[in-house]
Amino acid sequence: MVRFISCDWGTTSFRLKLVDTADLKVLAEVSSEMGVSRVNRMFLDSAAASGYTREKFFKETLAKGVLSLQEAFGGDLSGLMIICSGMASSSIGLRELAFTPIPFHVSGRDLNMDFIGVTDSFPNSLILLSGLKSEQDVMRGEETQLIGIIQDNKTFEGDGLFVFPGTHSKHISVREGYVVDFTTYMTGEMFEVIGTQSILKNSISANADLSSSDHVAAFREGVHRGYRDPLLSTLFKVRTQELFHTYSPSQNYHYLSGVLIGSELKNLGKDNRLPLYLCGTSSVFHPYQVAFETLEIPAVTVSKEMVEISVVSGQYKIFNQNLNHERSIFLGSF
Questions:
Q1: Predicted model pTM
Q2: Span(s) in the chain for CATH 3.30.420.310
Q3: Could you report the per-residue pLDDT of 123-162, keeping only the tens digit for each?
Q4: Distance (Å, whole) CA 267 – CA 183
Q5: Computed from CA positions of residues 234, 235, 238, 243, in that sequence, does the dihedral angle turn out positive or negative?
Q6: Minimal CB count within 10 Å: which of 25, 179, 197, 239?
Q7: 253 pLDDT more than 90
């Protein structure tokens, strides 16, 4: 396999990259907001009743993306294998796959996956990667990023706690080269819900600028309060701070962000004994950096650019691990 197409299909985003396997260099890429959640709504609203299968509808969306990638590259991409990670293997995605239970080796071996062959209407073979589950939690996509990050980090010694900020932040514990536990935090989603649906929405105004001194001060105060104090009472201070003119609505916006992030980071306090890695996966990466600094929590920073590269290297690592495994689903497929 000289080249492959990397597909990172998240809840709200859709990314395709053409990759050279010699050095994993990205030759072309495209992205859109056709995330799994949006495509699923489109399927339910317009296609399900007309006899379309979920798989056919999602493959048509994927095929349009491949055509866009083909235009960006300037060459024919039919016949190339697509390796797809993220929410495409969920119950609202292309085809639901069973989660792989932890403990899970960070080489990527034994990850559940499925192979979908070429058809007349879809000229690319497709490998669909699943996610991980613990006794009480699940994730899809972050495990591939994690595998790539570790694969690309030659100094990693087998133990670490990896923090992936986002709508649903993930804290993933790795010991002796195995994922042994992870926790999901609905930090980003709660910020959106509270800021648009609760009584607090009238006390804040959206402002992404976390560089001005008054915004940074409000954010840091929120981080300290969220880390230290009961969350529910701390949240209501967004209301009283606006009533008492303590903070402006834009300051309150950053205060609220700090409170929720600070509350999330409580488990990274004195009880943690693992090296920490803060992984840049979204637009909220910078606030998390500031929060770590505010709380004086030492961590290795993995940049957003490195995390994006890790998706490709993680997918390719998983492919190679399972291609050569004696129980691989790929035996006899090519």
A1: 0.91
A2: 187-302
A3: 999 999 999 999 999 999 999 999 999 998 988 999 999 9
A4: 10
A5: negative
A6: 197
A7: yes
